[in-house]
């Protein structure tokens, strides 16, 4: 049987340790990881191999990787429930990625929205890794017999590709070769939008950093960014993504952070002005981030403890990943060492 722990299904997800994590990463991913952790067997990574699809400053990459892991813990991931590790510490990810490279098709990879986006910004020499990146992500997921992949809306297409490749290979090598995963997309804030340009998603690589709330932003920066947030014409505070993307984004952020329904938030703002919505959203965000920032700094002050956590996570991840990889090697017809 492919499933490792009959009692609990498996969750896996990851974030690229590039630049600082932002509110979109937090609401689209980390906050849901925390929410789901008790009910699943969880693997959460800092995906440094994915980050390397774009040139990285070595010192910055190291800092960002520690910081991502510290944020995961500070946000509430419990080491009793979750395996935290760094992708490059588990060589099986690169090994399986090669095998998936031999089973993914040029056509399907060319259709990936994120590849089209990123390659259009890469200039004349587009790294091959940017093209095959979704198959490395598929390897991440398939190595652990993952059932559920909690991601923001922008990664759904990559999880769907993972499903296609898994089903294709199950057709070749037997139905229990890979567990076919499902995406988990949160009902609210699965696509947090840029504060200055609310028809584009909040992104680490946005031209203007004032459109993104970084998890490291100070309270004054958060206030300033929300104050400047683009709102829409008119003055009613209603959720309407088509006609009021800026206002809807702020309502979504509030709802994702407080659990209050969109209807209840709209009702609270009847007769109020956009300024109230901006100011109160900033307050809610600051309240959420403050303890996370404090705890992140404490964790970053003891790198040897983070190293210990990562070593432990990688050992457990390797043990599982090796079983999956061997299963596939055997079925492909490689001689087993
Ligand atoms: P990455 O690093 O771009 O983003 C990490 C997570 O944050 C989510 N996200 C958002 N959610 C809501 N609103 C936004 N504006 C926003 N921006 C980003 C992403 O959807 C993602 O969940 N390839 C992946 C990382 C990865 C991975 C994996 C994920 C590698 N292997 C295996 C899941 C499973 C990526 O580049 O995410």
Describe this structure in words.
The chain is mainly alpha-helical. 53% of the residues lie in helices and 7% in strands. The strands form 2 sheets. A 3-stranded parallel β-sheet has the order 1-2-3. It has a two-stranded parallel sheet with strand order 4-5. It is globular. The site of tryptophanyl-5'AMP has 26 residues, from β1, α1 and α7.
The CATH H-level superfamily of the largest domain is: HUPs
Helix content: 40-55%
Structural class estimated from helices and strands: mainly alpha
Please give the order of strands in the largest beta sheet: 1-2-3
Number of domains: 2
What amount of the residues lies in strands? 5-15%
The hetero compounds bound to this protein are:
tryptophanyl-5'AMP
Number of strands: 5
CATH architecture heading of the largest domain: 3-Layer(aba) Sandwich
Summarize the helix and strand pattern as letters.
EHEHHEHHHHEHEHHHHH
Let me know the average pLDDT: 95
CATH class of the largest domain: Alpha Beta
Looking at the structure, the CATH topology of the largest domain is Rossmann fold
Residue stretches low in confidence (pLDDT < 50, at least 5 long) are: 1-5
Task: Outline the fold blueprint.
Elements: E1 9-15, H1 23-36, E2 40-46, H2 48-51, H3 58-74, E3 82-86, H4 92-101, H5 106-110, H6 113-120, H7 128-142, E4 148-150, H8 156-173, E5 182-184, H9 219-227, H10 245-258, H11 262-268, H12 274-300, H13 303-332
Parallel strand pairs: 1-2, 2-3, 4-5
The structure holds tryptophanyl-5'AMP (TYM).
The site of tryptophanyl-5'AMP (TYM) has 26 residues, from strand 1, helix 1 and helix 7.
């Amino acid at each position: 049987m492919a499933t490792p722990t009959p009692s609990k299904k498996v969750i896996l997800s990851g974030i690229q340790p590039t630049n600082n994590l932002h509110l979109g990463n937090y609401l689209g991913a980390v906050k849901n990881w925390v929410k789901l952790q008790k009910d699943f067997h969880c693997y959460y990574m800092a995906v440094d191999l994915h980050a390397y699809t774009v040139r990285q400053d070595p010192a910055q990459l190291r800092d960002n990787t520690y910081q991502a892991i510290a944020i995961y813990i500070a946000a509430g991931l419990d080491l009793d429930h979750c395996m935290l590790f760094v992708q490059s510490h588990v060589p099986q990810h690169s090994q399986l990625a090669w095998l998936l490279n031999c089973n993914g098709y040029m056509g399907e990879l060319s259709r990936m929205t994120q590849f089209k986006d990123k390659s259009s910004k890469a200039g004349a020499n587009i790294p091959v890794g940017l093209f095959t990146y979704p198959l490395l992500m598929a390897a991440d997921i398939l190595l652990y017999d993952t059932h559920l992949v909690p991601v923001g809306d922008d990664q759904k297409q990559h999880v769907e590709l993972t499903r296609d490749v898994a089903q294709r290979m199950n057709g070749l090598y037997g139905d229990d070769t890979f567990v076919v995963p499902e995406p988990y997309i949160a009902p609210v804030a699965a696509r947090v939008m840029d504060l200055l340009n609310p028809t584009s998603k909040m992104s680490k690589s946005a031209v203007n950093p004032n459109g993104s709330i970084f998890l490291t932003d100070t309270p004054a920066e958060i206030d300033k960014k929300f104050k400047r947030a683009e709102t829409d014409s008119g003055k009613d505070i209603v959720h309407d993504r088509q006609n009021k993307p800026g206002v809807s984004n702020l309502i979504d952020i509030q709802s994702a952070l407080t659990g209050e329904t969109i209807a209840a938030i709209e009702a609270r703002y009847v007769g109020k002005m956009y300024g109230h919505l901006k100011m109160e959203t900033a307050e809610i965000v600051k309240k959420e981030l403050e303890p996370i920032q404090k705890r992140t700094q404490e964790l970053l002050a003891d790198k040897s403890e983070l190293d210990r956590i990562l070593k432990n996570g990688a050992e457990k991840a390797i043990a599982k990943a090796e079983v999956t990889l061997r299963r596939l090697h055997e079925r492909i017809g490689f001689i087993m060492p």
